[in-house]
Amino acid sequence: MPIGPIGLRQQGAPSLLAVFAHPDDESLSAGGTLARHAAAGARTAVVTATWGADTHRAAELAEALRILGAGAPRMLGHADSRVPGSAPGKAHFLDVPVDETIGQLVAHIREFRPEIVVTHDAYGGVTGHEDHVHTHRVTQLAVQAAGLERLYPDAGPPWQPGALYLATHPHSATTAWGGYLAPTGKAMLTVPDEQVSVVVDVTPWLERKVAAVLAHRTEAERGAVPGLVAGLSAAERELLLSTEWYIRHDLRQGLRHGLGHDPVPTVTPQTELVV
Ligand SMILES: [Zn+2]
């Protein structure tokens, strides 16, 4: 069965592994999609690149994931580039050899065996945080390495996810949002609407998504994005949070043996490079 763009009615519910930089990114960027897949009976999980497992942010993440039905936190344990105390004694995520972080993520992919993987887009989301950008890079490389048995042989048997979905925002979203985010003074890194492959209406899971965002209590208290969400009316939450956008990258095109028990239909090889 081909795994097309996220469409649960046509495809059933593909298992989903989300990979995000910080505790709260999973809820803000893909909370509705995570809740939606879990409600449809899919296995879902979240890997978080930064913050230590013994920090308050880890406890808040655990609560958010419980609300989203995404299991226990899977934390790579690196230090947040902007928060020195986020993982005591550990190097900043960007300073860790990339081979090491890819290997860590490959182990999670091979253990969880997701049909699809979700992460930040190449901009690192609307804010462009350097940890988000790096998480994107590491995930792009890991989803390919995971399927190759001679790469990271100690990280488990190979597993090739079918597609990578990049959480993104189209130009039109910020127009619709009006001035809501302008006061934050943050850059708004968005993509042309035609680059967006999937527009997910997460309205039915909005309450759950907001609860997961607000579970990051200390972020709300210090006035980070969860704090902005806490101050919104119900109508504003619907306007800002009820849609999630993704850019889809096919990871199985041309592969003849992809998902173990569920072989990929034969694909006729191309004879030249085309767009
Ligand atoms: Zn973040």
Tell me the layout of helices and strands:
Layout: H1 8-11, E1 16-20, H2 25-39, E2 44-50, H3 56-68, E3 74-78, H4 98-112, E4 116-120, H5 130-145, E5 163-168, H6 171-177, E6 198-201, H7 206-214, H8 217-221, H9 225-230, H10 234-241, E7 243-250
Parallel strand pairs: 1-2, 1-4, 2-3, 4-5
Antiparallel strand pairs: 5-7, 6-7
Bound molecules: zinc ion (ZN).
Residues 21-22, 25, 129, 132 line the site of zinc ion.
Description:
This protein is an alpha/beta fold and 275 residues long. The chain contains ten helices and seven strands. It has one domain: 3-Layer(aba) Sandwich (Rossmann fold), CATH 3.40.50. Helix 2 runs parallel beside helix 3, helix 3 packs antiparallel against helix 7 and helix 4 crosses helix 5. About 4% of the residues have low confidence. Zinc ion binds next to loops.
Structural features:
275 residues; alpha/beta; seven-stranded mixed β-sheet; Rossmann fold; 15% strand; binds zinc ion; 7 strands; single chain
Strand percentage lies at 5-15%
Q: In whole angstroms, how far apart are the ends?
A: 24 Å
Unreliable spans are 256-265
Count the domains.
1
- Arithmetic mean pLDDT: 89
* CATH fold label: Rossmann fold
Count of discrete alpha- or pi-helical segments spanning 4 or more residues:
10
Fourth-tier CATH superfamily name: LmbE-like
Number of strands: 7
Can you describe this structure in just a few lines?
36% of the residues lie in helices and 15% in strands. By secondary structure, it is of the alpha/beta class. Helix 2 (25-39) runs parallel beside helix 3 (56-68), helix 2 runs antiparallel to helix 7 and helix 4 crosses helix 5.
